[in-house]
């Protein structure tokens, strides 16, 4: 029976991760700690993705009410070091001596400005890079006591019309949709998401550093790209419904063990093995 902590869990990808995990039998998923800055789902959020249909405050609350013994809401602002420490203490108390098995660092932000207009780099680093670091570091003692020992960093991207053309011209090179890739920057150069690119590239390195640091302890620390999903930011022309992307993401999280340590996985979706966005279950370019 596995225990999970998900950041940015009140909407979008985080909410869908929580929903699908809660739908699994208790023999597979014992408990889910659903963490977010605003558990009441106010207009501002640190979640990496929003549903294509805007959610109401009751969406998350309803899910918790449906699974009161299996979902615990956890107040957590990933930019607040003291708050992250308090969240870890809350989860430790709830686990009653047991360990945490899987940490999913899902919370994140993305701006849409050109390089010369970029003024959100510091705040983006706080959420997208230092946030996962603080959460991983503070929850590491609980993860060391867990049986699965998995740390998953989510790298999500939202293509938009200004750079559809350049992406389509790279059919033979594209295998995933990740703006943090050095190898794919020539493809995504027109994407006006500069702070996101920079911080997600840094998150890639952070993932590798933690993977190397924890390898001898039997951890699996890896990145997952859940694809271009039909969210508010992704838009209705995105490739996949949120549920499909999350389902494929969970396949990776559930099935990858220590052999996945330090790697960057693309989801697998039948029928998407070729084309300018391939979801072939392979590995993404760093």
TrEMBL record:
Superkingdom in the source lineage? Eukaryota
Please name the taxonomic classification of the source.
Eukaryota, Fungi, Dikarya, Ascomycota, Pezizomycotina
UniProt xrefs under Pfam families: adh_short (PF00106), adh_short_C2 (PF13561)
Q: Which residues form a coiled coil?
A: none
List the Gene3D superfamilies: NAD(P)-binding Rossmann-like Domain
The protein depicted here goes by the name: NAD(P)-binding protein
GO cellular component terms, semicolon-separated: cytoplasm
Question: Which family does the record claim for this protein?
Answer: Belongs to the short-chain dehydrogenases/reductases (SDR) family.
